[in-house]
Design a protein that fits this description.
It is a single chain. Strand 14 (366-375) and strand 15 (378-387) form a beta hairpin. The model is unreliable at 1-29 (pLDDT under 50). It contains eleven helices and 21 strands. Strands 4-5-6-7-8-9-11-12 form an eight-stranded parallel barrel, surrounded by six helices. Strands 14-15-20-17 form a four-stranded antiparallel beta sheet. Helix 9 packs parallel to helix 10. It has helices at residues 37-43, 60-69, 81-84, 94-105, 123-126, 130-147, 182-193, 211-226, 247-255, 274-287, 322-333; strands spanning 5-6, 12-14, 26-28, 47-52, 72-75, 109-117, 154-159, 198-203, 232-235, 238-239, 260-268, 291-296, 338-339, 366-375, 378-387, 395-400, 406-411, 414-416, 421-425, 438-446, 455-458. The chain is globular and about 70 Å long. It has 459 residues and is an alpha/beta fold. The relative contact order is 0.12. The chain has two domains: 37-333, TIM Barrel (Alpha-Beta Barrel); 366-458, Immunoglobulin-like (Sandwich). The structure holds ligand G3I. The site of ligand G3I has 9 residues, from loops. Its EC number is 3.2.1.8.
Length: 459
Amino acid sequence: MKHRRVLRAAVTVAVTGALAAGMTMALTTSANAGTTLRASAAEKGRYFGAAVATGKLSTGAYTTILNREFNSVVAENEMKWDATEPQQGRFSYTGGDRLVSHAQANGMSVRGHALLWYQQEPGWAQNMSGSALRSAMINHVTQVATHFRGKIYAWDVVNEAFADGGSGGRRDSNLQRTGNDWIEAAFRAARVADPGAKLCYNDYNTDGINAKSTGIYNMVRDFKSRGVPIDCVGFQSHLGTSLASDYQANLQRFADLGVDVQITELDVMTGGNQANIYGAVTRACMNVSRCTGITTWGVRDCDSWRGSDNALLFDCNGNKKAAYTAVLNALNAGPAIPTDPPTDPPTDPPTDPPTDPPTDPPTVGCAASVSLNSWTGGFVASVKVTAGSAGTSGWNVGFTLPSGASVTNTWSATASGSTGTVRFANVNYNGRLGAGQVTEFGFQGTGSASGVTPTCTAS
Ligand code: G3I
């Protein structure tokens, strides 16, 4: 058991493990610690976020609160499928890019919401099914996650795929009808496209131990056991006038599977209990060391999709409500995320072999290995290229595809041909590799690529 050390106030905290590689964010505590949501959360190694409609960023009263109180944002609508790919293969990132710029300029991390959701599908996708839809959705995940690569702390890769009621099973949708493996296919594609982002499954009515949350729990446990890349589970927490007594226990059982948990869309029905419920949710998150942050679904009551529920922390004039004080107090009273000190030597000398040894450490030239994510009628191939002892100034990887297979889309390499023998050359930024250095590229295709093996040539 490694020693753990609790973060202290008044330091700059690089939250290792809690934040994605490539997006490691310095959470700087300041004179504001204890007096704003963002500073108090940061002091405890966490984020406090809000869903943002980018159209409101030009409203001074809105942006003043956003920048003062929140250090994480998520697009309320602008990164959804209908917004980012309104016509098939034609992508639009205006709103999402604007939000990312605002976040970067104001020391905020970004949650990405949502790569795949049965709602807010563009019309063209609503009319698709089967392998055509499977291909289109994997392409969507790949393109959007690639566009935002390195800028997203955590992606809701799949949103709301489980049914309400007591079944604990999947919700019917055209996505689900492409085959039960659609969720894992999406997670694998997202990992290839943005290896630095935490990949989350996100849902509602999961605010306690119930049939729906247990169905999701079983899926996450299965994914972890089979190596499907999932890092976090989002609990939307659109709440009414009471909170399940096992809210925290539910978060903890997911955390115990080895994933982070996040409260992703918090809002609470107005009324006498609102402040208490906000406080209790915040305390629950603080008490679960893998609960890395909380997002409210909007800023002021009048910004909320819940209209007259007055469900948020600020009233329509921007005044702090009792619920705000309850959250702030809970953030200030809660423990910090324990972190492993980076400098302590390990207690026991490591006995296990490295978990990810290079597949074929070549002495000259280069080596390539492929991992396939396949479904009926299609596949995504993730290819690792490892330079030999002389390094490379360029590389070229060849595959001979089985008959019927065809490459439809490539990233981080340039393809020659699409059927039979297909060759992939480096692009300008990943050709030059030092000895033993690894780079990755990928391609998507139709048909089956089962059994293919790559050959690598270096120049
Ligand atoms: O932008 C168009 C506008 O051009 C058009 O005239 C108008 C006519 O209906 O619609 C506008 O789009 C609306 C969009 O919000 C932006 O305001 C959509 O109709 C409307 O459906 C959409 O609602 C969003 C809803 O997701 C979509 O299902 C809400 O703002 C958003 O808060 C809500 O967020 C969801 C999360 O993504 C997932 N979890 C539940 C949560 C609440 O429903």
